[in-house]
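P.,

For your records, the input lines for the assembly:
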Amino acid sequence: DAEITQSPRHKITETGRQVTLACHQTWNHNNMFWYRQDLGHGLRLIHYSYGVQDTNKGEVSDGYSVSRSNTEDLPLTLESAASSQTSVYFCASSESINGFGYTFGSGTRLTVV
Amino acid sequence: EDQVTQSPEALRLQEGESSSLNCSYTVSGLRGLFWYRQDPGKGPEFLFTLYSAGEEKEKERLKATLTKKESFLHITAPKPEDSATYLCAVQDNSKLTFGKGITLSVRP
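Structure tokens returned:
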């Protein structure tokens, strides 16, 4: 069965370190998204991609970067982790950009100490 | 800027006590309104998509409806297993904008 997987599920890192969160999907979806979820804010879009070599900034992109070298993967990098980036991160993919819902991964809980 | 407001923030029901969750939205051009269910420690799970005012969709004890300014998720005779956070999202152009969610607790 097709799926979308995130790794690791949990991570603790120190302030200032570079961290990469993995997202891998086997749906063959062109569209992939990264969200963060915090109490009181709901899901907020960090970065998204409509296909290989395409990346775009979302509403909370500062301090994050993504790259898309193939259809299956969209890794999220925190360049220099900050305590404000402690959050739960969700990756999602979709078949089409119009009118289709997203399929979400199970999330990565990141703690920056 | 797209905005999505969900109310109430939290809702506690007795098993069998029907109720509705509200999602109010402002969007320049609605391509779809989505409802998701999220269980603790998991990613959101897709429930419904609504595309135009007057549209309704049902799944087991859930029914979603849409007007030009809001959507309702009606829960009929809920069971404890319906306890979860319910997220509403709107899509214009390509991206989804989410509300903060409604946490539903159903007591046996």
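Two observations worth noting. Chain A has a mean pLDDT of 94. The radius of gyration of chain A is 13 Å.

Regards
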